[in-house]
Amino acid sequence: MVKFFENLRAKVRNGARISDVEALELFQSNDLLAIGELAALANRRQNGDRVYFNVNRHINYSNICVNRCTFCAFCKGEGDAGSYTLALNDVLAKAAEAAAAGATEIHMVGGLHPDLPFDFYLEMLASIKADNPALHIKAFTAVEIDYFARITGQSVEAVIDELKKAGLESLPGGGAEIFAEEVREQICPEKISGKRWLEVTEKVHRAGLKSNATMLFGHLESHEDRIDHLGRLRRLQDRTGGFQSFIPLAFQPDNTRVPGAKGVGGVDALKTLAISRVYLDNFRHVKAYWVMLGLKIAQVALAFGVNDLDGTVVEEKIGHDAGADSPQAMSKEQIVELIRKAGRIPVERDTLYRELRVY
Amino acid sequence: MLERIAGKISRGAGINRAEALRLLTETDLLAVGRLADGIRRKRHPHNRVTFVVDRNVNYSNVCVSKCKFCAFYRNDGDADAYLLDSEAIHGKIRELVEHGGTQLLMQGGLHPTLTIDWFEELFRGIKARFPQVQIHSLSPAEVIHVARLSGLPMPECLKRLRAAGLDSVPGGGAEVLVDEVRREISPNKIGWRDWAGVMEEAHAQGMRTTATMMFGSKETPADIVEHLFRVREIQEKTGGFTAFIPWTFQPSNTELGGTTATGVEYLKVLALSRIVLDNVENIQASWVTQGAGMAQVALFFGANDLGGTMLEENVVAAAGCSFRMSIEEIIDLARGGGFIPAKRNTLYEILEEY
Q: Whole-prediction pTM value?
């Protein structure tokens, strides 16, 4: 085992890739600290001591969704108690509030709504942008893009083009869940396949938009499934270079319908973040999404190869509906403090990772 | 620097205060974790992670100490002030026994009128009904308070409590064992020497105790280091501490308010505890203040014990922190970290492996 880690350290130091077999061995290892050291080394090569965050706001414009993913506690059917769709004015009010509070980004995702026309989304983008030209709009997953293509009968390329013209500037990377077909069939049978997610994302990148990539872990998937997921992302990134950050999302089991799933332990969360950092050598950033991980583990993750703490968020609904016990929002000062107390340099960034301010 | 410290540790030599301070303030989290994990694995090579099935019974929330970090205490006469009668306490212990519990952690406040007779009667009544339960109760501050109220010297008070059924003393109320800090956060509570005095006396009488530290309020890193060395020095004299338990101040609903230690700071202090307290067998992770996820990670930063399952916990919950865990969840937590879960008693004797 000592030799194994020595070899991997040499690989990381030389910028060489680790294989799927090596990644599996890392997942099977109990040496959490050695895995963390490897990831810290990989991260330091790319990012030094800098840890990024942004000031953003989430707007979940609707929770009505025709997909019935079993891991999701957010979605509702049309007419269900608790279902909602925000009026355009409400969306604009939230965006204006965010801009006034110093946000540089709107993170906007919803469900696959059965009735809203494609124009609704275009108008939403264009109106936000008209009111707040400086706000970056990061919105819609590949799943939604595919859905827009289906409801309009247009090609994915045409849909992306229209969204872009209306003001869309990047994609957040959700909907990836886990690509492996067998598990995907169990947790989100109605959702587009992993293959399709990757196809749509490739088209997004080809259209000149950056995106992130996520992985939902800690439900029914095996270690092999996680590595398969990372492998497909690494290969796509080799082709497009369009991914900015990788965001492993720890599954939150409350109010969901995944049989037997218990959620993610602290050790598994850190291991998964760290192994992702080591494996995805062509991703610049690995993000600890504190909404799902909790503030403490997210901060500790900074010692395990993570270099991004996401943003101030404000009014997150999806993770919290599934029982996440993190706060609804963080102030910029709180994030800066968390990063400092981890012994690192806090850097506020914009969505495209341009540095706005070093603290 | 790190190499020299690592060398000392591998030779089994203790590190000094200056080295401890450098580990705490200038050393990378994983590097400190490595040192602590090495010591933990050497000391507990069986790969076990232990826990005790226990219940916190807070016999009263009336307390004259009024510590500024505490959200639990009430004044006598407050609408929600209470004192449990023996029947209520027996009922709670019965539930503990039904859940396979072995440890009763009974603490209250510094009550203005309860003298030693009340406690003697209570302990005797418990022992008569539940001889299998270990009474792990009354922090040093309570012992001294009861002694004063009863007009007894502290050693005599302890002797009588022990004769009535007290098995061991929990290490609460240590807060930070530096009087400058205590004056700020708990001005009416005993000073560090009194805390040490009760522990040394308990050890001399043959009782085992634990030691705690509550950090994340007003102390400096040097105060944390001082605390650890004071515990180590007591342990050198007596050998009576079974475990050390660092936890973090919980600010909600307290007079002190403000913020507390972050996750990284918790793990660093925990790891440093394992390194400095090379003469204390067990280091506890605090899932009550850190949550299950962090407690599992803590097992790689020096902790080998998960404390109690806490059928009931009121003090930390009053400060806005209410993590709960079942025995099954604790077992899962230890297994998920790659360890063998084991149920223990108060003296850290293994009762069952899972």
A: 0.94
